[in-house]
Amino acid sequence: SAINFLERLCLTWMFFFMMCVAERTYKQRFLFAKLFSHITSARKAKKYEIPHFRLKKVENIKIWLSLRSYLKRRGPQRSVDVVVSSIFLLALSIAFICCAQVLKGHKTFLNAAYNWEFLIWEAALLLFLLRLASLGSETNKKYSNISILLTEQINLYLKMEKKPNKKEQLSLVNNVLKLSTKLLKELDSPFRLYGLTMNPLIYNITRVVILSAVSGVISDLLGFNIRV
């Protein structure tokens, strides 16, 4: 029993250590995204002591897009995505096991000690996934903030009225801003769940397994069939 307890303790520590590393990486990504969104604002750039430049030249737009791409790729990517995907699949597996145990006998479900252990693990993993989902969502909002480009387009239109002699140059910059806006919209991946890795296979497994299990549990508890 002592050896079994020590093995569980070590495995739990290693697993939660990897989760803490993943959360730290997500926090760093959010910090970089937050500072990146303040670059084009003179007041916020001065407040956070970061460089400031306006998107009024094609060279500045090129630098802005390159910096955005560099910051999104900075830090560990594949290893963190593997950790988060593993956490998600583990939480999915535990939820499926709990649903199967409830269907087997919901009156005696809480009598077994291992079911309590499953519930504790599931609660811890869900809280952690919600934390990562919140950080990933805020990070995506910062990088996908199209209002920055729209604001720069409005400033360019105002400059065209004040400086008609530079209208051709400003029109070129405005066209580049429009193309950049379309590019940012196209870069958003359709299989992202608030920043978490979500490929089509995991999405389909989640939809089929979770909905089937939840439907079976609800039908068993209420006494009549429900199709979710």
Automatic annotation (TrEMBL):
It comes from the Eukaryota. The gene is Phtf1. GO terms for cellular component: endoplasmic reticulum. This is PHTF1 factor. Keywords: Membrane, Transmembrane, Transmembrane helix. The keyword Transcription regulation does not apply. The chain crosses the membrane at residues 6-26, 82-103, 115-133. InterPro entries: PHTF1/2 (IPR039775). It comes from Urocolius indicus (Red-faced mousebird).
